Amino acid sequence: MLRLSFTRVSNERHRFAYARADGSGESLDLETRSFLVHDFLHIAVECEARMTAGFLGQLAAGAHYADLSGPAAAQLMAAPPAKDQAERWLAEHIVGPLTPVALGRATPQAFLAGLADWSAAVGRPIPPWLDAGFVDRVLARYRSLAGRWRATPFGAVMDVQIEHL
Length: 165
What we know:
The protein has 165 residues and is α+β, with helices and mostly antiparallel strands.
């Protein structure tokens, strides 16, 4: 289990905190425009796919946020992943291109077509569960999270429990 907390600090900033099943974790102040949509999509993608070793799974297993972001994330994306990073690599390659869809700037069909092109270019198959139905479920979960966030007053906390971790 992993508990995520998002605190609305201002229009520009939020506090992201996570707590593992053993109570350990950390809290970070983040720039909302850059991180919130990405984080909500990670929740939606990794929960719908039941990923256990994606970004959230690695936080739950003991990694620190800094170990999974910034230069470490860029390095992961630049090359085919080591076996222990394959699920996280896949999660990032879904979340990034899905962002324009979540923001209403692209269609699910365009995402799936781009994913097929990417798969052919890198020589990695698309998992059979990654289809139009999956995208619909991810977008529904994302919209639910975004709606909860919009209803969260300044200073209040929006908690999300990831039960499968």
